[in-house]
Amino acid sequence: MAITHNLGFPRIGKNRELKFELEKFWREETSKEDLQHTAQTLRKTHWNLQKQLDWLPVGDFSLYDHVLDTSALVGNLPERVSQEQDDLAKYFQVARGQSHSHCQQVAAGEMTKWFDTNYHYIVPEFDANTTFSLHAENLISQVKEAKALGHNIKPVILGPVTYLWLGKTKDGSNKLDLLDGLLATYELLLLALQEEGVEWVQIDEPILVTELDSSWTHALKQAYLALNKSPIKLLLTSYFGELKENLHFACELPVAGLHIDAINGFNEIDQVVDWLPSHKVLSLGVINGRNIWINDLNKTLAWLTPLQQRLQDRLWLAPSCSLLHVPVDLDSEQNLDEDIQSWLAFAVQKLDELNILATALNQGKDAVAEELVINELAIKSRQQSNRVHNPLIKTRVAGINDAMAQRKSSYQQRAAIQRQRFNLPLFPTTTIGSFPQTAEIRQARKQYRLGQLDEQQYQTFLKNQINHDIEQQEALGLDVLVHGEAERNDMVEYFGEQLDGYTFSQFGWVQSYGSRCVKPPIIFGDISRPQAMTVEWATYAQSLSSKPVKGMLTGPVTILNWSFVRDDQPRSQTCLQLALAIRDEVLDLEEAGINIIQIDEAALREGLPLRQSQWHTYLDWAVNSFKLTANGVQDETQIHTHMCYSEFNDIIQAIADMDADVITIETSRSDMELLDVFNEFNYPNEIGPGVYDIHTPNIPTIEQIVELINKAAERIPAERLWINPDCGLKTRRWEEVKPALAAMVTASKVLRSNSAAA
Ligand code: GLN
Ligand code: ZN
Using a 6 Å CB cutoff, which residues line ligand 1? Predict the structure, then answer.
């Protein structure tokens, strides 16, 4: 019998109930009891949706983040949280600096991306004196809750070694020195679960798919030797990739079962089956937990059937990873095209697929004959649909050649031409694109969407907004202006909506962090651009000023990384299609007289594979796609790009290879320390290190900006420096933006006169 289970279910609720309840709680509009009640109701609903499974996850639910839950579980909340408050208040204080609007504020825990996903976790904090103690009340009460509802459950916990790996030491001590103490706490935890009658525990060690040095593999051995003393059976769980060099080692760790990602690690399945000792269970993650496409069930069954014959009762089936990364229920969708809807599966549908597979294996295909036929028809319709496949685009992609991705001349030659053309001062000032998205702007967009504003009225509104933004920038004295992006709700969705090959869900929310969710647009088919997307706004803005106005686009890699991407062709192919569509837009802007064009690649870095050995393959096609987008222009046209981070020490060569004339990056918070990379690496083109931290309401002073730029000028020649904020200004208010930009402009004048005097 193949056994079914789930690694984790989305927590936020199909109508984002948890989000709304949390935000109410933080605003003090609801009580702790109400919040706990909502959480309990959601868990109950989610278990009900999973009840056909043999084992249901418990402990996968979280009020904010499961890594923070683990910190609370092992008694490792930072000491700065105020002790005179209840556990929940402490928890939220770490998560977001404060528990509710009126309570004391402390520094929130740092947040970072969970492996290669768009989910962010709260980074555990350690120092040499960190001790651990068990606080399992929360988990145990959820175990009791599920059992009281009659469910067969399998608690889910984050493994001790991954927990340490994800954290940061504040004092430079070695995290692994803390392992013994942590293991003692995990042993107590297993004991507590044993007392609840728990038989299996899923223990997640996703670091098994990363490159581990021997101290970490040693830690894993030590951990599982220690935890193996418990009579509880451990399902050691890895996901998000292949085990590769860790494969033999993972198979041999002393646990009762191993879960592997059979989507990303498909080529390793046979090896794992060969290596796994015969007393161990093998759980195969056969349903993709990272995308929203249906599984080809007949194809999956074809390779699973012989495996089941080999493994018999040792075979478990699950999604590849937690379903946290997909929306809850496709049945909520009312507006999707019928064909496209039949190609999609959200969390609930993915679990249905799992059950169909298990039934087919356990009772024979006839038991699910109808389901298999429906699946086969949907798969065929997707494969053959002319909405997916556009031969013209495939031909165009096949015709891409190297020359298309190269500028006509070198940066030095271009820079000379551009200097003449734009006649910009030293230390030119600019912004990253968006201006404050006021309540008025959001209101107008909403009214337009609801049909309360007609096309004409909405256009007039946007033009007035552009008038306003240009006036403000002229008054401030900025050198290179922008139109302000008032028409854009989101830098990816805005383009997706105008491209063919994209569709949008109504309720396809995925948790990004805490109560924040994103609704990634869905790329289902070959991408094309039916008409120009931004030219009208850019040319209108340019008509209002004698200063250059930048055209503003989102780059192909960022569009790709922030969408649900089709799985029937390599990501690199989809990226090339996006690149061609945005390239056409670049050329249209140039043709329309827009001479400076910015192509944002905010998400280029986050597409990096988990293993460094695979970075170059990704960077090759990602950089090539950017170049294909940008580099069709004449030497006179200045290409800018923007990236929302500054840790690019390890990818600096790739960024230089993009060959943008100007790059703007985020740096202000790091005090330009992150520019250290330019001590060794001679960045060849122009660069605007951010001098205004737009993540806080703080206004930088003239002196601070001058000091930052002077630091930057120690590494990059002044002629190649720009002055700009860290990122777009859409989340800020005009009252903050005006003085901050005024300080920037004054600082640039100070710098110019200093350098003239020197
Ligand atoms: N041009 C965009 C803006 O200014 C860039 C946003 C981003 O990089 N995240 O909002
Ligand atoms: Zn940015």
Answer: 432-434, 485, 491, 552, 600, 602, 642, 644, 727-728, 730
